[in-house]
Specification:
InterPro entries: DIOX_N, IPNS-like_FE2OG_OXY, IPNS-like_sf, Iron_ascorbate_oxido_reductase, Oxoglu/Fe-dep_dioxygenase_dom. It comes from Ascidiaceihabitans donghaensis. It catalyses: 2-oxoglutarate + O2 + 2 H(+) = ethene + 3 CO2 + H2O; L-arginine + 2-oxoglutarate + O2 = guanidine + L-glutamate 5-semialdehyde + succinate + CO2. Keywords: Ethylene biosynthesis, Iron, Metal-binding, Oxidoreductase. With about 300 residues, the protein is of the alpha+beta class. The protein has one domain: Jelly Rolls (Sandwich), CATH 2.60.120. The chain is built from 7 helices and 12 strands. The strands form 2 sheets. It has an 8-stranded mixed β-sheet. A 4-stranded antiparallel β-sheet has the order 6-11-8-9, with no helix packed on it. A hairpin with a 5-residue loop joins strand 8 and strand 9. The longest helix is centred in the middle third of the chain and has 26 residues. Bound molecules: 2-oxoglutaric acid and fe (ii) ion (FE2). Fe (ii) ion binds next to loops.
Length: about 300
């Protein structure tokens, strides 16, 4: 149901692989990819680095709490994101880092390019996370080129939109599902991602569930080194609904779990409206709007 695809075959333009990718993009909206430039041991190291960060005492994480800022860089406490307004805020914690512009860049004041906040410990956290950020962006760009080809667009159709991309890298930490959790409490409640493509690494634990077109949920698991990919709202706009942004969630269970999504969002000024329409949908406006809806400290009410 969820296809497993070889990233090198996507890159090489292998017909059968692109056909499966196109089918996933138009259908269930999820696939997994393996055999990327990011080796399993590299991904494991990154996951363990995030785990060490999340295991720090709360006081250390509070030092870089994003709730003290007007943006979304640094630590997000439990209950600080509400992705579904019909559910309670998520019980997960997370750490977000993103694209930084030089101070004199005309877009530098926008909150989608806010400066990162790094913890002092664990040692080497910043370096490891930044190196992963750079390499995961290349993997995501390659997959996106494959998708363009798979849906009969020029392979480089999306390239120009990623010059100053609002790419966000997140570490999610799901503790054991709390005893107080009700039917309205989730690790992450049902949502669609906001951008173009999400490249998700997990520690291999189960938890992610993907909504089937006809209703019901499919569990998706991937060990470190195999990535779950899915498509976001901007991609659905941009392809006039050809590519699907599929709802997904994590209810959470008996064991802690780490996942590391890279949200591959384009440059702020990109128009992600359907090609040939006279609509304008600014990627930056859409992202800022979704952030203001879902981060509790940015909600306006
Ligand atoms: O942890 C997961 O498997 C999914 C996380 C997710 O959907 C998200 O962070 O947007
Ligand atoms: Fe998601």
């Amino acid at each position: 149901m969820i296809p497993r695809l070889d990233a090198q075959l996507i890159r090489a333009g292998d017909r059968a692989t692109l056909a499966a990718l196109g089918e996933a993009a138009r259908g269930v909206g999820f696939a997994t990819v393996y055999n990327t430039a990011l080796t399993p041991s590299r991904v494991e190291d990154v996951i363990e680095m995030y785990r060490a960060f999340f295991h720090l005492p709360e006081s250390a994480k509070r030092e870089i709490d994003m709730a003290r800022t007007g943006a979304n860089r640094g630590w997000g406490a439990p209950g600080s994101e509400q992705v579904d307004l019909d559910a309670n805020p998520d019980y997960k914690q997370f750490f977000d880092s993103g694209y930084e512009l030089s101070k004199d860049d005309p877009l530098a004041a926008l909150s989608v390019y806010a400066p990162n906040q790094w913890p002092e410990v664990p040692a080497g956290f910043r370096e490891m996370v930044q190196a992963y950020y750079d390499d995961a962006r290349d993997v995501a760009m390659d997959v996106l080129r494959g998708i363009a080809a798979a849906i009969d667009m020029p392979r480089d159709y999306f390239d120009a939109a990623f010059a100053k991309p609002m790419v966000l890298l997140r570490g999610n930490y799901y503790p054991e599902r709390p005893v107080w959790a009700t039917a309205k409490d989730f690790g992450i409640a049902t949502h669609t991602d906001y951008g173009c493509l999400t490249l998700l690494a997990t520690d291999g634990s189960p938890g992610l569930e993907v909504r089937k077109r006809g209703g019901g949920w499919i569990a998706v698991e991937a060990p470190p080194g195999e990535f779950v990919i899915n498509f976001g709202e901007m991609m659905e706009f941009w392809t006039a609904g050809d590519v699907k942004a599929t709802p997904h969630r994590v209810v959470g269970g008996m064991h802690e779990r780490i996942s590391v999504p890279l949200f591959f969002n384009p440059t702020h000024d990109t128009n992600v409206a359907p090609p040939g329409s006279d609509q304008v949908i600014s990627a930056g406006d859409h992202l800022a709007k979704r952030f203001e809806e879902t981060y509790v400290h940015l909600q306006k009410q």
